[in-house]
Amino acid sequence: MTRCTWLLKPCLWVALLALLVCGPAWAQAPAAAPSATAAAATTPPVAVDTPLTVTGPTTDDQAAGDPSGTKTGTANDVMKPDATKPLTITDLVNQAGQNRIAINFTWTLVAGFLVMFMHAGFAIVETDLCRAKIANHTMIINFMVYGFGLFAFWVCGFAIQMGGSAGVAMLGGAQPLSHEAVFHFMGKDWGLFGTKGFFLAGSTYDVGVMVLFLFQMVFMDTALTIVTGAAAERWKYVAFCISSILMGGLTYPLFANWAWGGGWLSKLGTNYGLGAGYADFAGSGVVHAVGGITALALSLIIGPRIGKYNRDGSSNAMPGHDLVIVLTGCFILAFGWFGFNPGSTLGASGALRISTIAVDTMLAGCTGSFGALLYMWMKYGKPDASMAGNGLLAGLVAITAPSGYVNTMGATIIGFIAGVLVCFSVEFFDRVVRVDDPVGAISVHGVNGIWGVISVGLFADGTNGVKGWFYGDPTQLVAQLIGVGTLVGFVFAFSYVANYAIHAVVGQRVSAADELEGLDIPEMGALCYPEFVLKPGSIPAGAAAD
Fold this sequence. Notes:
This protein has helices at 2-28, 36-42, 59-63, 89-129, 135-162, 207-230, 237-260, 268-272, 284-302, 323-340, 354-380, 385-400, 408-433, 441-459, 474-505, 512-517, 520-524; strands at 180-185, 188-194. The chain has 546 residues and is an all-alpha fold. A hairpin with a 2-residue loop joins strand 1 (180-185) and strand 2 (188-194). Helix 6 (207-230) crosses helix 7.
C-alpha cells in the first residue's frame, strides 16, 4: 500500500498543477462547433417572405454618373410585385430565375435573327450561280419562300412539329405544348406528330412558345430555300408557291417532330437502348438533308434545263453570272451559321458550350473549303472559286448535327471530308445520275446533311451525353443510320408523290419557249438586268459582226 501511494503522489501533483494553470483557459474556451445536422436543427429557417433591408446607391449618387458601372444594376433594380411592400427572398429568387430565362430568350432570339439573315445569303448565292436572264425569277422565289413557309408553319407546321415538346427548360418550359399523338406498338410509345399550337392560339399564346416558334420557323425556312436552288431556271412560279406551303406545313414538320419534337426517332435510346437516340444537334438531317432530298425528288420530276445534256449523255457547263456575289453570299451564310449551331443550345445561361460549338462551326467550314479547293486544284490544275464556296457550305452543313457533341479535332476532320465529298457528289449527280442541279444544293445539303448525321455516330465524344463509335458506343451509329434510312425513305417518297401531284394539276415546269427566253419576263414581267440581257433586234444592223 505504501509503495502504491508513493507512485500515485507525483501523478496527483502533476494533475493538480495542470488544473491550476490551464483551468481558467478551459473554462473560457468556446464549446465545440455543433454538427451540420445539429446546426440545422437549432437555427430557425428564414421565411421566404421575410422583409429584407437592402439598399442601393441613392439617386444623388447615380446622378453624379457611373463610369465604372458599379452603381448601375443594384438592389434598386430588383423588381418587386408590390412596390409598397419591402423586398423579400421570394422576390430575389424570382428575379434570378427570370434573369436566367431572359438571357436565354435574348440569345435564342438573336440567334434566330442571324438564321433569318442567312436567307439573304442563300438568295444571292443561288441567283448569281444562275444566268443573268433568270435573276429576277430566282431572287423573288428566294424572297417569297420566307413568306410562304412562315405562313404555313404558323397555321399548322409548328403544331405538328413541336406540339408535344413541353418541358423546354432553357425557355421556361413551354408547357402549353403538351400533346403528342402517340402510336402504341410492341409495348412502346411512338410519337408521330404534335397537336398543340395551331395558329399559335389558345394556351400557346405564351412568351416561351413564341421564342421557340421564331427559332424553329427560320430553321424550317432554311430547308425550303434549299429546294429553290436545285429547281432554278425552269420551275413554274405557281408550282413553287404550292410546293413551299406543303413542305413548310407538313413534310418538314413531320420529320422534325420525330427528331426534335419528342417523336419516335428521339426515343430510340430510351426505348431500344440505341445510344442517346437519334441525335441531330442543329439539323444536318432535319434541315439540310430534308431540303436536299426534297430537291432531288423535285429535280427528277422537272428534268434538266434545256441544253444541259447532249445526245450522248455528256453534260455542258452552264456557269452563273457573278462569282463575286456568290462568294459574298457564302460569307453571309457562314456568319449566319453562328446562329444556326450555337443558337441551338436555346440559351446562354447554363449552356456555356456555345463557345466550343462556335469554334467547331468555324473549323469545319474552313476545312470544308480546303477539301474542295484541293480536290479541284489537284484534278483540274486550277482552284475553282464556286466549288471552294460550296466546300465551305458543305463543311458547315456537315458540322451542324455533331457540333454539340464533338471536339475540335473531330470538327476539322468532318469538315474536310465534307469538302471533298461535295466535289465527288456534284460530279456524280451531274454525269452519272444526270440530275441537273444549278447550284449543287443536292450535294451540299442532301449528301453532306446525311454525312453530318452519320458523323455523330462516329465522332461524338460523350461530352453532352452522346458517344459515338470511336469513343466506345457503336449503338449510337445504329440510331443515326435509322435516322438516315427514315430521311431517304420517307422524305424522298413523300416529296416525290406530293410534287408529282402538283405537277399533274398545275405543272411544275415552264414552257420551253419561256425557259429559252429566261423567266424574268414570262413569269415575273420584268428583267433584273435590262441593260445586260439582249433581245432579238436589239443589236443595230451591221454591229453583230464586230
